[in-house]
Amino acid sequence: MSSLVVCYSEILTATEQLHKLKQVKKSTFLWSVETNRETRAYLFGTIHEPFTEIWQSVSQKVKEALEYSDSLVLEIDLSDRSNVDALLRCMQMDHGKTVQNYLPHSIYVHMRKYRQKLIRWFIKKGESRQAAKKHAYETFANITGGWQTRKPLWLLILLQQLDYKIPEKSSPLDFYLAAYAKHNNKNILTIETTDEQCNPLQTVNLDSIIFAINYTLSYLEFMAEKRDLTGQNNNFFSSSGLVERYQCGDMNIDTVIVSRQKHATRAGFSLGYQIDKKAEQTNFINQF
């Protein structure tokens, strides 16, 4: 018997100026795990990116380990509809309440304005106004579906996923692995419950979350305006660099988690020194 454990590897960004890229051996992100039993186990490091961007570059050794393993161990199995339903329920506010119960009106308006900016962006890409509206709605809903009834922390997390990049429609690598395992009748095990996934930061107060929502929205609008001017998706948090390093097996380099505020400042974004400083000090903003 053998099993493959999938471990999500989160490296948010690298310094703009690395000292020097070290010559390192290309990594497969696959490790053999020693056990006291006859079972052979492997640990595979993944990133939360579309499998279409990654799978072709994944080592054949990984694919063989997946093929010959009897079990797959995931953070949580999102191919199981009951898990998805449980997570969606925990993200929602109590019946009858909406984000307008806790968001200042100006921030709520920001949310609606940003979707309009997405429409203009897709029109600039050559889509018709009708197609652009549909694409913008699907893009917004793909990440923030049901946003008007989201709990504060989950609204922030969803917004920061929009901040990270314009989402593609293909499934993340972990979801693809789970679907493959299910299709091939392999056991799927998980290391976290939906309850653990549901409450990632229980101690963060509402004022801090609303501050982070406002800061993120302001940044999103700033970058949307830059897209309007340049016609390019110049989102500063593009994941392309991360994907390229992963494809090249080159994640074993000097990397640091740099705050969102520092990146935003280098992109030309600022809400003033005091607000920017507060954003930099609010470390939980950068943890999703």
UniProtKB/TrEMBL annotation:
Matching InterPro entries: TIKI1/2-like (IPR040230), TraB/PrgY/GumN_fam (IPR002816)
Alphabetical list of CDD domains matching this protein: Tiki
Documented EC number(s): 3.4.-.-
MF-aspect GO terms: metal ion binding; metalloendopeptidase activity
Subcellular location: Cell membrane; Membrane
Function summary: Metalloprotease that acts as a negative regulator of the Wnt signaling pathway.
Protein name (record): Metalloprotease TIKI homolog
Organism (species): Enterobius vermicularis
